[in-house]
C-alpha cells in the first residue's frame, strides 16, 4: 500500500497530543491486497481511525468488533495495554453504511491512521473502544465533520484526555474559509487532496502545514481543484514521550519492558490473558515485535 508518514518528522514530533499520522491510499484493495495487520499491541496512546473510502474490520482485546467506515470515528484507547487487528474489506460504504460520496470506486482504501499520546494521569488506565459519527455541516461553503474535541460550535462525544481537536474539511474549488480557533492550541493542516493555502502559505497534497499557538483564526483556501484536509490541533503536549514501534512511554527502559512482556505473554504464550489480553475472532497469529535498535531511545518533545 501507499503510505505517507506525515507525523512525526524531522522538524516536528507532536502537534498538541497528536504524535503520529499515517496517510494512506487511495489503493485498489483487489490489486494491493489492502490492509492485513495481525493482532499487535499498543500502550500509552489512542488510535484514531478515519477513512475517506473503503472499509476496515477492527477487533481488539476489549472484545470490540467494529467496521471502520468513511465519516465514522473509531477510537481505541490503549492505556496500560491492548492488542488489535485491522483487515480491509472490498465493499465500499459511506457514513452510516450508506453510499460513499467520495467519488472513489468500490474496492478502494483511503484514509488516515492517527495517534494521540496519553498524558501521565491517563496513560495507565484500562483500555476501551468507542465509535462516534459526527454530523456533517456547512461552514462558509465547506463541508465539515468534527470528530474529536470542539470546533465551530460542534463537539465530539469521543473521549479526549488533553485539550485537542480533529476535523475534516471538504472545500470546493476556489473556496476560502475562516476558522476561529483556540489561541492556546497549535494546529496542523494535513492535505489529502488538492492544494491549499494556510494563512497564505501553500501546502501541497500529502503534506502537513503548521501554525504555532497564538492564532485566533486560520484562513484556509483551496485552489483550482477541490480539496480535502484534516485540521489537527491541541494544547502543546507538556510531557516528553518515547515512541517506538506501537508503544508510547516515557523512557527507553519502559519501552523495552513493554516489548518483553508482549513477546513473552502473547507471542510465546506465557500469559495470553495478561497485560494485552487476547483478540477473539482473528484467524492467525499475533505480530512479533521487531528487535530493539542497538542504541537507547531518546525522548521526543
Automatic annotation (TrEMBL):
Domain Pirin C-terminal, chain residue ranges per copy: 168-262
CDD domains: cupin_pirin_C (cd02247)
Ranges where the Pirin N-terminal domain occurs: 3-115
Pfam families (alphabetical): Pirin (PF02678), Pirin_C (PF05726)
Residue ranges of the TM segments: none
InterPro entries tied to this protein: Pirin, Pirin_C_dom, Pirin_N_dom, RmlC-like_jellyroll, RmlC_Cupin_sf
Protein family (similarity comment): Belongs to the pirin family.
PANTHER family documented for this protein: PIRIN, PIRIN-RELATED
Name under which the protein is recorded: Pirin family protein
Lineage of the species this protein comes from: Bacteria, Bacillati, Actinomycetota, Actinomycetes, Micrococcales
Amino acid at each position: 500500500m501507499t503510505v505517507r508518514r506525515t507525523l512525526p518528522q524531522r522538524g516536528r514530533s507532536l502537534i498538541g497530543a497528536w504524535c503520529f499520522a499515517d496517510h494512506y491510499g487511495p489503493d485498489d484493495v483487489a490489486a494491493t491486497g489492502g490492509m492485513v495487520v495481525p493482532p499487535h499491541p499498543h500502550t500509552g496512546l489512542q488510535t484514531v481511525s478515519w477513512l475517506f473510502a473503503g472499509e476496515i474490520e477492527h477487533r481488539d482485546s476489549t472484545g470490540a468488533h467494529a467496521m471502520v467506515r468513511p465519516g465514522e470515528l473509531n477510537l481505541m484507547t490503549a492505556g496500560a495495554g491492548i492488542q488489535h487487528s485491522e483487515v480491509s474489506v472490498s465493499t465500499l460504504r459511506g457514513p452510516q453504511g450508506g453510499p460513499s460520496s467520495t467519488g472513489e470506486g468500490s474496492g478502494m482504501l483511503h484514509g488516515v491512521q492517527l495517534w494521540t499520546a496519553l498524558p501521565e494521569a491517563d496513560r495507565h488506565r484500562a483500555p476501551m473502544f468507542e465509535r462516534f459519527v459526527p454530523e456533517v455541516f456547512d461552514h462558509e461553503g465547506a463541508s465539515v465533520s468534527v470528530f474529536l474535541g470542539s470546533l465551530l460550535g460542534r463537539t465530539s462525544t469521543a473521549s479526549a484526555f488533553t485539550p485537542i481537536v480533529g476535523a475534516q474539511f471538504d472545500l470546493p474549488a476556489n473556496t476560502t474559509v475562516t476558522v476561529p480557533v483556540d489561541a492556546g492550541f497549535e494546529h496542523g493542516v494535513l492535505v489529502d487532496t488538492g492544494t491549499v493555502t494556510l494563512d497564505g502559505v501553500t501546502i501541497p497534497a500529502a503534506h502537513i502545514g503548521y501554525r504555532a499557538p497564538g492564532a485566533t483564526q486560520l484562513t484556509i483556501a483551496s485552489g483550482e481543484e477541490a480539496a480535502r484536509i484534516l485540521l489537527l490541533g491541541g494544547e502543546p503536549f507538556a510531557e516528553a514521550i518515547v515512541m517506538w514501534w506501537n508503544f508510547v512511554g516515557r523512557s527507553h527502559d519502559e519501552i523495552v519492558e513493554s516489548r518483553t512482556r508482549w513477546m513473552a505473554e502473547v507471542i510465546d504464550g506465557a500469559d495470553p490473558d495478561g497485560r494485552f489480553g487476547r483478540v477473539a475472532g482473528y484467524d492467525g497469529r499475533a505480530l512479533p515485535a521487531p528487535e530493539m535498535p542497538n542504541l537507547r531511545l531518546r525522548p521526543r518533545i
